[in-house]
Write a structure and sequence with these properties.
The complex is a heterodimer of chains A (409) and B (429).
Chain A (H helix, E strand, L loop, with lengths): L18 H11 L6 E2 L16 H12 L14 H12 L4 H4 L3 E6 L1 H16 L4 E6 L5 H8 L2 E6 L1 E2 L4 E2 L1 H9 L6 E5 L12 H14 L2 E6 L14 H8 L4 E6 L12 E6 L3 H19 L4 H12 L1 H32 L7 H4 L4 E3 L4 H11 L1 E2 L5 E3 L8 H14 L2
Parallel strand pairs in A: 1-12, 3-4, 3-7, 7-8, 8-9
Antiparallel strand pairs in A: 2-10, 5-6, 9-10, 11-13
Helix pairs in contact in A: 2-11, 2-12, 3-11, 5-6, 5-10, 7-8, 8-9, 11-12, 12-15, 14-15
Chain B lengths: L1 H9 L12 H5 L16 H9 L6 E2 L16 H10 L14 H12 L4 H4 L3 E7 H16 L5 E5 L3 H9 L4 E5 L1 E2 L4 E2 L1 H10 L5 E5 L12 H14 L2 E6 L9 H4 L1 H8 L5 E5 L11 E7 L3 H19 L4 H11 L2 H31 L7 H5 L4 E3 L4 H11 L1 E2 L5 E3 L8 H12 L3
Parallel strand pairs in B: 1-12, 3-4, 3-7, 7-8, 8-9
Antiparallel strand pairs in B: 2-10, 5-6, 9-10, 11-13
Classes of the chains: A alpha/beta (409), B alpha/beta (429).
EC number (chain B): 2.6.1.1
Family (chain B): Belongs to the class-I pyridoxal-phosphate-dependent aminotransferase family.
GO molecular function, one term (chain B): L-aspartate:2-oxoglutarate aminotransferase activity
């Protein structure tokens, strides 16, 4: 039957395709047998398949078989065990901040949800509304913080000339940030560049930030996935917490536990005192309740099951290291393949960069060429997901890069 | 000289105290020292108090989560079976931003009807949402973004979180009269007045069935009149449907209000939740849908809803969605679910009858008809906050101070005790 009137939403226009997810859409459409998907950052095995960790399967079975488990609402702040264990994971189980009850941790929907809830809290309760994000950064950061009510500025980070860190630029930009401004730091395995400051550089960043009262907000999406060692990948965060100062941390279990679609994460706010911490946690609830009331139970239960069991935790660290090692191996293979071909340029950054992504330094035209002629799918900023590479596809990628670099400037 | 030089260097750029490793940070005050403690959530605070009470007689009729006749939470058989099938699956990859296509398809069939022409014509923009709360919030944010001058009319009373949701979305709120404290039923005349007096094209929040907290629903006739008046006024109807199947025991029946509006040509919005009717509470499984003019517009609206979800949580959780689509997509499991939903609804209806009978047998001077007239999980008893406090302090009975009783917490074991206590605190009113 005919509807009454035009819709009140008839002026709504279609939103543009997400640039990262659009890569997979294009890849799926391509019939070529040699196509390679180096777009989205989800881990793939040597066989090119997604991976559910064995320890996760075991945890899930335990949960399914435990008939005493119910599906009741979690508290607004989420699963208590999960929160405590997550804080220990990132800050260290002997962290004085935890022992002094100075950490407010709330379960959130993976990294995105943790960043959003943290951003909203800051927009309501913090005196400075500006957040500085690195140039470049994950494509969703700007939107998350803008919608949370913060104003977004950038600081220099990646140096295209060296394909490494623009440390001088970073310090210079943070030096002129207004006192109290919030600064987003990738805890490890910077997305999209794979370029991380050294610990010495982090120490200098810490001194500068503390002298200006800049508030650190860590995005930790790859703990354990970067170096293969959970503690090593948390050093940047722990450096800051050790000086007794305040900070925020967003944790994700999407990659390091392979729990992508379960949306498991945690936001922690480290405060100066236990009293402040209690009040901060109560205010976090007011952000969460009108957003989704309370977080989903399934993924957090899996994480808590694993983290609290000595043997399962060990098994997890082994599987995690295996994923990280495979990626490091792909880096090595690609680097050697380019060297063997005599591909012009310095490709050392492939093995220097860390984590799931490599910022190749290839330009838009070269990327478009590689897609068209070699069926290589990647984001137009030159980022490749190493997790999507396999030993048998490395030669093809190396050929593509070689051709692009020699034929297109 | 050198020492002074070092001192100046260490003092940093803006003349703040010397920065050693730790000293400056330790000496600074907290950035969050001014943060006030937030008020406790009125509903969730009740269960906290209940848990803290050591009395063996205590009764929790506060939070709206279903309990069986032994007062225990329930996991539906169809859910356990679905989870057995899901565990050990191939991957836990990200869902698309808009969520599980299968779950959305099944949800639309449930709300709009299996044979809905709107589904066939692809006119419904729909995304998976974080249960009912998440669906309402996505809609509120969408409303703000695309109709920034609009406001929302909310019934008096309503679920308290509705106010929080539209407030955080920065959509101004108005109210419309709904509950009549004297009859403990619908104040239909006032409701119609408020609908007529609202400016044309206003947005209204309607509870599709089993109104929370009152349990008072318009009759089918009344819904038709409301729908007609909405046509005249060109109002936008947004349905919050959190109890489909749970109210009467029959999901088709519980969707009647929505179907009436659809027949009358309204382009509705709808929030669906599987928290109660599938017992999936903590899984946060729900769906938001908006009926559009045509397929093209539905595609556009869906893409914009996704743009709101992306900076909030990127994509919704997969587990609950899989449970829903596994159950609704399998005829046997769906049939089992329908049986289980009906038995939950029947148990509640049985408890309503029992509570009323008990109160009448006790010789209460008041009328308790409303207990059986009202529908769904909640009964708006009509008790005052002071009477509720007496129930808690003298009888260890826990409920929200607006007099709302969660019938799901009533059992054959405690209905007599509950009736006695209510009689005690109300017999002299």
């Amino acid at each position: 039957m005919a509807s009454l009137e035009g819709s009140v939403f008839s002026s709504v226009v279609q939103a543009p395709e997400d640039p990262i997810l659009g890569v997979t859409v294009a890849y799926n459409k391509d019939p070529s047998p040699v196509k390679v998907n180096l777009g989205v950052g989800a881990y793939r095995t040597e066989e090119g398949k997604p991976l559910v960790l064995n320890v996760v399967r075991r945890a899930e079975q335990l949960l399914v078989n435990d008939l005493s488990r119910v599906k009741e609402y979690l508290p607004i702040t989420g699963l208590a065990d999960f929160n405590k264990l997550s804080a220990k994971l990132i800050f260290g189980s002997d962290s004085p901040a935890i022992q002094e009850n100075r950490v407010a941790t709330v379960q959130c929907l993976s990294g995105t949800g943790s960043l959003r809830v943290g951003g909203e809290f800051l927009a309501r309760h913090y005196h400075e509304r500006t957040i500085y994000i690195p140039q470049p950064t994950w494509g969703n950061h700007t939107k998350v913080f803008t919608l949370a009510g913060l104003s977004v500025k950038t600081y220099r980070y990646y140096d295209p000339a060296t394909r490494g860190l623009d440390f001088e630029g970073l310090l210079a930009d943070l030096s002129v940030a207004p006192p109290g401004a919030i600064v987003l730091l990738h805890a490890c395995a910077h997305n999209p560049t794979g370029v991380d400051p050294t610990l010495d550089q982090y120490e200098q960043i810490r001194l500068l930030m503390r002298s200006k009262g800049l508030l650190p907000f860590f995005d930790s999406a790859y703990q354990g996935f970067a170096s293969g060692n959970l503690d090593a990948d948390a050093q940047s965060v722990r450096l800051f917490v050790a000086d007794g100062g305040e900070c925020l941390t967003a944790q994700s279990y999407a990659k390091n536990m392979g729990l992508y679609g379960e949306r498991v994460g945690a936001l922690s706010i480290v405060c100066k005192s236990a009293d402040v911490t209690v009040r901060v946690e109560s205010q976090l609830k007011l952000v969460i309740r009108p957003m989704y009331s309370n977080p989903p139970i399934h993924g957090a239960s899996i994480v808590a099951t694993i983290l609290k069991d000595r043997e399962m935790y060990e098994e997890w660290t082994i599987e995690l290291k295996a994923m990280a090692d495979r990626i490091i191996n792909m880096r090595q293979l690609l680097f050697e393949a380019l060297r063997t071909r005599g591909t012009p340029g310095d490709w050392g950054h492939i093995i220097k960069q860390i984590g799931m992504f490599t910022f190749t330094g290839l330009n838009r035209e070269q990327v478009a060429f590689m897609t068209k002629e070699y069926h290589i799918y990647m984001t137009s900023d030159g980022r490749i997901s190493m997790a999507g590479l396999r030993s048998q596809t490395v030669p093809h990628l190396a050929d593509a890069i070689h051709a692009a670099v020699t034929q297109i400037q | 000289m050198a020492a002074i030089g070092r001192g100046i260097l260490r003092r940093g750029i803006v003349g703040l105290p010397a920065v050693g490793s730790g000293s400056a940070a330790r000496s600074m005050a907290s950035w969050f020292g001014h943060v006030e403690p937030a008020a406790k959530d009125p509903i969730l605070g009740v269960t906290e108090a209940f848990l803290a009470d050591p009395s063996p007689e205590k009764v929790n009729v506060g939070v709206g989560a279903y309990r069986d006749d032994n007062g225990k939470p329930v996991v539906l058989e169809c859910v356990r079976e679905a989870e057995r099938r899901i565990a050990g699956r191939l991957n836990m990859e990200y869902l698309p931003m808009g969520g599980s296509i299968k779950m959305i398809e099944e949800s639309l069939k449930l709300a709009y009807g299996d044979d809905s022409e709107f589904i066939k014509d692809k006119r419904i923009a729909a995304v998976q949402a974080l249960s009912g709360t998440g669906a309402c919030r996505l809609f509120a944010d969408f409303q703000k973004r695309f109709l920034p001058d609009s406001q929302i009319y909310i019934p008096i009373p309503t679920w308290s979180n509705h106010h929080n949701i539209w407030r955080d979305a920065n959509v101004p709120q108005r109210t419309f009269r709904y509950y009549h404290p004297d009859t403990k039923g619908l104040d239909f005349a006032s409701m119609m007045d408020d609908i007529k007096n609202a400016p044309n094209g206003s947005f209204f929040l309607l509870h599709a069935c089993a109104h929370n907290p009152t349990g008072v629903d318009p009759s089918e006739e009344q819904w038709r009149e409301i729908s007609y008046q909405f046509k005249v006024k060109k109002h936008f109807p947004f349905f919050d449907m959190a109890y489909q199947g749970f109210a009467s025991g029959d999901p088709e029946k519980d969707a009647k209000a929505i179907r009436i509006f659809l027949e009358d040509g309204h382009q509705i919005g709808c929030a669906q939740s599987y928290a109660k009717n599938m017992g999936l509470y903590g899984q946060r499984a729900g769906c938001l849908s908006i009926l559009c003019e045509d397929e093209l517009q539905a595609v556009a609206v869906k893409s914009q809803l996704q743009q709101i979800a992306r900076p909030m949580y990127s994509n919704p959780p997969v587990h609950g969605a899989l449970v829903v689509s596994t159950i609704l997509g399998d005829p046997e499991l769906k049939s089992l679910w329908l049986k289980e939903v009906k038995s939950m609804a029947d148990r509640i209806i049985g408890m309503r009858n029992a509570l009323r009978e008990n109160l009448e047998k006790l010789g209460s001077p008041l009328s308790w008809e409303h207990i059986t007239n009202q529908i769904g999980m909640f009964c708006y008893s009509g008790m005052t906050p002071e009477q509720v406090d007496r129930l808690t302090n003298e009888f260890h009975i826990y409920m929200t101070r607006n007099g709302r009783i969660s019938m799901a917490g009533v059992t054959t074991g405690n209905v007599g005790y509950l009736a006695n206590a209510i009689h005690e605190v109300t017999k002299s009113s």
